[in-house]
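Reminder: ligand-aware prediction takes two inputs, not one.
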Amino acid sequence: MFSCKESFKQSFLKRLERLCGKSFHDSSKLDQYQTLSMMVREYISSNWIGTNEQSRSNQNKQTYYLSIEFLLGRLLGQNLLNLGVRGIVQRGLGELGISLDDIEETEIDAGLGNGGLGRLAACFLDSLASLDLPGHGMGIRYKHGFFEQKIVDGHQVELPEQWLKHGYVWEIRNADQAVCVYFGGEVKMAQEGGRLRFWNENAEVITAVPHDIPVIGYKTKTINTLRLWNAEPCSLQHEQNILKYKLDTEAVSECLYPDDTHDEGKVLRLKQQYFLVSASLQSIVKSYKKNHRSLYDFHKKVSIHINDTHPALAVPELMRILLDEEKMTWEEAWYITVHTISYTNHTTLAEALEKWRIDLFKPLLPRIFMIVEEINERFCEWLWEKYPGDWDRIEKLAIIAHGEVKMAHLAIVGSYSVNGVANIHSNILKEREMNGFYTVFPSKFNNKTNGMSHRRWLLKANPPLADLITEAIGDKWIKDPESLLELQPYAHDAAFIESFQKIKRQRKQILSDIIKNSTGFAVHPDSIFDVQVKRLHAYKRQLLNVIHMMYLYNRLKDDSAFSIYPQTFIFGAKASPTYHYAKKIIKLIHSVAHKVNHDPEVRHSMNVIFMENYRVSSAERIFPASDVSEQISAASKEASGTGNMKFMINGALTIGTHDGANIEMLERVGPDCIYTFGLKADEVLHYGEKGGYRSREYYQHDARIRQAADQLISGFFEGEADEFEQIYDSLLAHNDEYFVLKDFASYAEAQERIQKDYRNKRLWAEKAVTNIAHAGYFSSDRTIREYADDIWGIKPHPR
Ligand code: 26Q
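Here is what comes back for the chain with 26Q:
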């Protein structure tokens, strides 16, 4: 049906009528989107079946990537590209008078994630399939993804997200493969055949129904699976209060939790975690048992990866299955568990390390709690033997302590591999945050620097740039991203540079049109597009950017000799609903935007734009249109960052701190092609531990800081007298936890370098092309190959 334009048109029209019961002329964009997507599903079905059959019959080792989040975004466009049929479809639809771009715009983003961690999982799926690796995702089919952001009078308002409102064409409900997940009740035990048998009575039972989404690799026959679990009632006949049971059950997969480390752990969140883990492990074990008589070699054929600690209950759950259902001894079960599970840490922020209070944990998961207790006791005994008398060490490393279960400790003890997501982050884990564990398990620790799918973030998001690159060096970079290095000589090729500049200008025009349509404000595409898009968090320091904009505004107003190359500051960010400080920063950005954009003396030199509801699909419009990428976290706080890489591959230059993967970007492009500034990680960590920083001194000695800080509380922003007091206090009364004031001068100086360099268009473009040439390393293909080789032990199986 996709072999040529004519047969495509015929199939499309026929299916549209059958599927929608309408003629083409009466059909809506949504009808057309659903028809086309169904055609893709049908087209790949035999390869999907084939991939599954191949793994069954060849008994290849399989990896399952357990993640509480998968931030997929839209699938139609990427799937058409990966299948190599986008051109045919585009031309065929064109002849019918419809635009493929418009149809793709109809798809609602699958936004089942908060940000970096969830999007990383989605990029990993693309790379696994594209590299013919047997790796599958398992997650939760939240009815509502991450909230939709509206801005009302400069304030963030959250609306429930509704991605399923038209149904979801990419999923297949496999009700026949549903499993039961048990909560609460009492654990019973009895002697049986010389061993203790455990079972649960009076538990609440929830059915987990898998919804499978095909993961289509780039120009390969491999189709992997993303399995998302939906929570549904079991059989209703035993329940007293049927309606309540139905609602309680469905609540488990109702909503994605926002990343809110300020919030107390909620029992429903723990329920979600166990729901994901128990359903996934049962299904993995079931499918393994179809081909194997016993589970003694399980770890040789299955690897289970946990994306942060959210699925860390995989450790006790696998133990439960092996002990209680497979009747193994503790030692047998433990050996298999620790050789099956591997774990990635995504943060060193102390407040983000997951802990669950025992009084919450134990009643919800009584048998799992018993197993965690046993793991903890055996681990502590082992420590005692290794370090007799060292109570301090045991207290620090114990899995259960002070009335809480520490999920990171459980994940480290119960796995064979622990990795961080950038070199600096992995080193901080080893030398600081997890040093106690590194001392006892040095060989478990390793680094896997993050990556992004260059096929989504360049090939799909920026087709003209992708075409230009292919014209220059051929198309092998699509399968082999590190061959982008061959672009380096083109940094000095006048024709190439000119084409690059033209494309960047076009993409800035497109984004300007989007901004005009959504905000009513016209920005100039010839200004520097300086962009900070990411979750709103104090450590990411959107505030540093804001204080700098306020300084520029003040200087433009006060100093008639001062001028700048026009610069448009673009923001996109969602704040967690209960993170009040972050919401104030959003309000502040809007207040500054209002001042700047309406001031006739300033608005031709600078503009400030906040893009509402930042998400995967808007990111695809933003990265290609960016000149400057803001990666300005307080050093040591951003584990890796992945947006930094998406900007880089689209030829934006980074202004960034010595943090996360920025450091590895600098190592590749050299100091002339990236604008680094600010404190180093060891300095930040040293101040954090030893003190010695006094933010007030920077306020007193730097008039630029003083003026901007005072404006936060002086009524400078009309009608909002005490709106920004909390921000002012964070900088001065609370001694500026993230060193915004300390790094200000260095940041302003880096911005001045940008101002100077941007005027030399040719040189700027050369630097941009150098960035693109070195971005191949940051493809998730490289990351996934490293995981496959060093951690999972899986091999490509092309069909
Ligand atoms: C925890 C408890 C309760 C509710 C939610 C959460 C929760 C949810 C999501 C905690 C954290 C997250 C997400 C974290 C995250 O995205 N971390 C980012 O991971 C990226 C991929 O490795 C890194 O590039 C970023 O540096 C890191 O911040």
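The first strand starts at residue 62 and ends at 66. The CA atoms of residues 6 and 510 lie 31 Å apart. We will return to this case in the review session.
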